[in-house]
Amino acid sequence: MIENKTREKEDEGMASNSRRDFLKKSSVITAIALTPVAAVKASDLKLDERLSEAIEQMSLSIEINGQQYNLKVEPRLTLLDLLRERLKLTGTKKGCDQGQCGACTVHVDGVRTNSCLSLAVMNDGAKVTTIEGLANGHELHPMQEAFIKHDGFQCGYCTPGQIMSAVACIHEGHANSETEIREFMSGNICRCGAYANIVNAIREVKAGGKV
Amino acid sequence: MSKKHLENADMELAMSRVDGRVKVTGAAKYTAEVQLPELTYGVLVESTVGQGVITSIDTKKAEWAPGVIAVISHLNTPGVPEYKLQNQDVIQKQLRVFNDANVYFNGQPIAVVVADTLERAQYGASLVKVTYSKEKSFSNLKDNIARAIVPKKAKADPKGMTSDFIRGRAEAYKDAEFQVNEEYIQPSEAHHPMELHSIIATWDAEDKLTLVDKTQGSQQTAASIAKSFQLPAENVKVLSTYVGGAFGSALRVWPHEIVAILAAKKVQKPVKLVLHRNQMSYMVGYRPYTLQKVAIGASKDGKILGLSHESYGKTSMYEEFTENVLIMSRMMYDIPNVDTKYRIVPLNVSTPAPMRGPGEATGSFALECAIDELSYKLKMDPIELRLVNYAAQDPDKKIPWSSNFLKECYQLGADKIGWNKRKAEPDSIQDGEWKVGYGVATGTFGAFRNAASVKATFKPDGTLLLQSAIADIGPGTATSMTAIAAKNLGIQPENIAFQLGNSTFPKAPMQGGSNTVATVGSAVVATCDNLKVELAKRAAKQKPEWNNAIPKNISIVGTQLVNSDEPSSKVEIASLFKEDNLSELVIKGDAAPGEESKKYSFYSFSVHFIEAHVHELTGVVRIKNAVSVIDCGTVVSPKTARSQSMGGIVGGIGMALMEDVVIDDRTGRTVTASFGDYHVPVQADIPQMEMMFVNEKDPYLNPMGSKGLGEIVIIGVAPAVANAVYNATGKRVRHLPITPDKLI
Ligand code: FES
Ligand code: FES
């Protein structure tokens, strides 16, 4: 009834303590499952699903905007939903949930990443920066300043993703010309059409050398 | 004469958005981000057939899945009371959510799974098994044109834009020496604002609802929901503080909103329901696929003698959607003989919705391409052709324009783009492997004004809070309203706050149809004037000369109230609160349109110029330069107005070159639902652009001298692109989008 094989496979590559955790719990379930009457009843009432709910939590240790989090999460939870739904860090946006719009862009160990395409548990031990962690206290990041000055947005929904992408674009060395910026910022859709202003903001920050 | 018009450089340094900081720091909370205790998550189950009847819904597995609280469908819905009433509006018949087993389109919401986390609700929804008795579905307009009907609206309003219309003679184009007679197709286009449509529904009591909802009209949504659930109007509160774009998709209540409210009733907890990106292409409206036939005839000198224009648009099986596709053909040019015919074709699709420049954007594509085609037949410059047919007054209503600076628009834009570089003969400019062409087209949209009120709270420290129920879907409403108040009162913008998006705030219309500045701005002016009168009354108790002060001359300078007529009569603001020990002054102001629309015809105008480069081997089109010149009256907030116009060009480029909701007619399923298949312009598609505003006041619409902007910035862009592509290649594409396959 319990598919230990698949579970173990999923378990591979995960932190060793979560593996121990899992084995402990799974033996409890095996004990229940081995009682024939209980097994039938459990299956009838779909108790197996109820039990698996209790065990399908994995440990995740992650640093977000300088703060350390030690969490238990379901393996199917995305980094984006971890941020938005569990940690209430709603600055990172969900625009498509399938890697096609860039609204969910965050920095994972300094690299821009679509957080909707990354499972939270894949980021164990990682350092994540979101839009909430970009400013230095009350002092805005130069890219945030430049977006305000050049009006690099209208509705503002794509904006956190654009800004995180823009900062990374300069760090990567992909902001040397207008054409290059356009190419390397093309993963971030702005339906309000603030593209030209976004380019101008990035060019100014790049020229100022403040990133 | 000093230059009045505005160019990029004049506008880039203007006042920045007042909500810039919250938007660049991620602090702005959009609908799905509002935190409520005991929140649950709803995920929709959709029909997988285009037409038929549900024969069974097996929810057992879903109900037993971990974390699932409820599965709701037509079998166990708490019900929408309005559905039981007789005499419902027959034209606007919304899809009746979970009302029965009928399926009208593929993707129709037929059940919802509510769980304690999003993942569990999603998984639960995947476990619901549905069987159907499937019927043949019809989703292709061309194949089903025989099903076209005259909309009920036309019968109800025989003078309206959807009724058959003749000015002069019908089909007079046939008698003209030079003729164009063609068919144009605008495919369905999805709004796809970046923020997904979302709602959080909470029943505060048996008869009391609070909705955090993505809407373009908090009060209109509240009223519609109150009607559906038969609740007292004041018992429905709607909040939409930040709206991440909409473009028309949030102008009405959609099924998923009703679903969330039903679900919240069932589970007795707040339910959050966020649409998936793919659902955004068929659950919240779209610009409908429209086939148009335009025939136009002119004499040798370019004078147009006759214009015939027919339109066939998609609508759903349960509701009639109409829009003003034909209005521009009736009023834009001085043509003696015009006839129009408007039809809709009910199909197994969801109901369309107004999308930015609704109707007019579709109509202008056909009309402005046909005019361009005529210019080549006449061997006449297309700007010249438009000027020959310039209407000195509204030929439809036969009254003067309130203001019309189209001629200035043509001139300014032609100079800016370098129209003299254009060759009259198509396919004559080559730049390496690229063919180069120039195109122009005109746009227009009615300039409207509605009634609104604003509440002001003024404090002794000189700070001002203004409140209105209006939404801000992106143009920067708080910014333009702050600019209007700052200008009127003399207060620094940083001392003004403008709050919006709350149905309990003073009355405002929906944000749609480019009416916000004219409507709410007028109420801001009225409120500021009322505030000045009240302050002067109070000042008069200290210095009697204030009795004669008129609002126009009163301003707030630093901490003082000043009358420019009597500079010596200054008083300290704080002192005006002392006598009755007030901590704040609360003032309301109302504004409504008068009789002006009987005397004048109100329209905004735009002229768009495009330089297109077409790759000769691959057929790829690149927009190299775009210039829009806009007559929207006085520009209230230049920086945001410029951005809004650029957004219009971007939307128009999408419409012209890539956007296409494709339906598999065998199943009725949308195949271009995701951004992977439904292409919208990205950064690499968009050049630097020049936005220009004539910036001449409209004397009659409102005290600011403004007209509307949000629609005219996209209306006319797609035909300008199509015309530029023709000029570059000699290939006329009359079926949007202009994809490379149509050019090679
Ligand atoms: S939400 Fe991640 S790319 Fe769109
Ligand atoms: S600012 Fe609205 S989508 Fe970019």
TrEMBL record, chain A:
Residue stretches making up the 2Fe-2S ferredoxin-type domain: 58-134
InterPro entries attached to this UniProt entry: 2Fe-2S-bd, 2Fe-2S-bd_dom_sf, 2Fe-2S_ferredoxin-like_sf, 2Fe-2S_ferredoxin-type, 2Fe2S_fd_BS, Aldehyde_Oxdr_Iron-Sulfur, Beta-grasp_dom_sf, TAT_signal_bac_arc
The UniProt record lists the keyword Hydrolase: no
Protein name: Xanthine dehydrogenase YagT iron-sulfur-binding subunit
MF GO annotations: 2 iron, 2 sulfur cluster binding; metal ion binding; oxidoreductase activity, acting on the aldehyde or oxo group of donors
Pfam families in the cross-refs: Fer2 (PF00111), Fer2_2 (PF01799)
Domain of life the protein comes from: Bacteria
UniProt cross-references to NCBIfam families, sorted A to Z: TAT_signal_seq (TIGR01409)
Alphabetized UniProt keyword annotations: 2Fe-2S, Iron, Iron-sulfur, Metal-binding, Oxidoreductase
Gene3D superfamilies assigned to the protein according to its UniProt record, in alphabetical order: 3.10.20.30, [2Fe-2S]-binding domain
From TrEMBL, chain B:
GO molecular function: iron ion binding; oxidoreductase activity
Domain (Aldehyde oxidase/xanthine dehydrogenase a/b hammerhead): residue spans on this chain: 25-136
InterPro entries with a match to the protein in the record: Ald_Oxase/Xan_DH_a/b, Ald_Oxase/Xan_DH_a/b_sf, Ald_Oxase/xanthine_DH-like, AldOxase/xan_DH_MoCoBD1, AldOxase/xan_DH_MoCoBD2, AldOxase/xan_DH_Mopterin-bd_sf
Protein name, per record: Xanthine dehydrogenase YagR molybdenum-binding subunit
